[in-house]
Specification:
Layout: H1 2-7, H2 9-19, H3 28-50, H4 67-76, H5 80-87, H6 99-127, H7 136-139, H8 145-163, H9 166-186
Helix pairs in contact: 2-9, 3-4, 3-6, 6-8, 6-9
This protein binds protoporphyrin IX containing FE.
Length: about 190
């Protein structure tokens, strides 16, 4: 876990500034654009992670998929059909054809739930968003975020100790961060 954190520190900092959600000037339209980009990325990468059957390594990936909560939020905002139609899918993704690589991608997505807690508080204060009116993605596991993160760290560590291919996992995490940043920069969102 330390290797993952250190190797991706710069990418995380870069993404925080690209996402720019903590900005005081952040509007509801900005939020719709942000969710659209997250939706495009998650709905494209999750099926690629899923084929690796991480269940066999003790990780219930299906319970952590976020595409459904993103769809729920977009529906609550009244833009789901529009977004599905316009956003398309993101194909510039890393190769995730082994469990070791899939764990690297999951690191990025599970780590995002930690930042999500801070983002959720800001969105609640700033735009009145709650898990029931368009904020369920950033709320993610709610009070379970801490325990879910701990569980992810434990399973990933056990996998790495057994399989000894840390480099594959770390590279996939870096590539996932980079792919995310490109998806953010390159997705142009039509206003509805
Ligand atoms: C404005 C946006 C964001 C903020 C404010 C933020 C904030 C944070 C915070 C406070 C942590 C916990 C750090 C710690 O306890 O050491 C964290 C961890 C993390 N975040 Fe973010 N984050 C943001 C966006 C993202 C995004 C978009 C992703 C990926 C898609 C991401 C991936 C991660 C990862 C992988 C970790 C785990 C680091 C580790 O402990 O190994 N973050 N973030």
């Amino acid at each position: 876990m330390t290797k993952l954190k250190e190797a991706t520190k710069e990418q995380h900092e870069n993404l925080e500034s690209v996402v720019d959600v903590m900005n005081k000037m952040f509007t509801r339209e900005d939020y719709e654009r942000l969710l659209t980009k997250f939706y495009k990325f998650y709905s494209s990468i999750e099926p690629r992670v899923g084929v690796n059957r991480l269940n066999d390594s003790g990780f219930d990936f299906d319970a952590r998929r976020k595409t459904t909560s993103l769809e729920r939020d977009l529906a609550n905002l009244g833009i789901l059909e529009n977004v599905k139609h316009l956003a398309g899918s993101w194909s510039d993704l890393p190769d995730l054809d082994t469990p070791a690589k899939a764990f690297g991608a999951c690191y990025v997505m599970e780590g995002a739930t930690l930042g999500g807690q801070i983002i959720m508080r800001h969105l609640k204060d700033h735009l009145g968003l709650t898990p029931d009116n368009g904020g369920s993605f950033f709320n993610s596991y709610g009070p379970q975020v801490g325990p879910m993160w701990k569980e992810f760290c434990a399973v990933t560590t056990e996998f790495a100790e057994k399989n000894g291919n840390d480099e594959e996992t770390v590279n996939a995490a870096k590539e996932t961060f980079d792919s995310f940043a490109r998806c953010f920069a390159e997705t142009s969102v039509a206003s509805n």
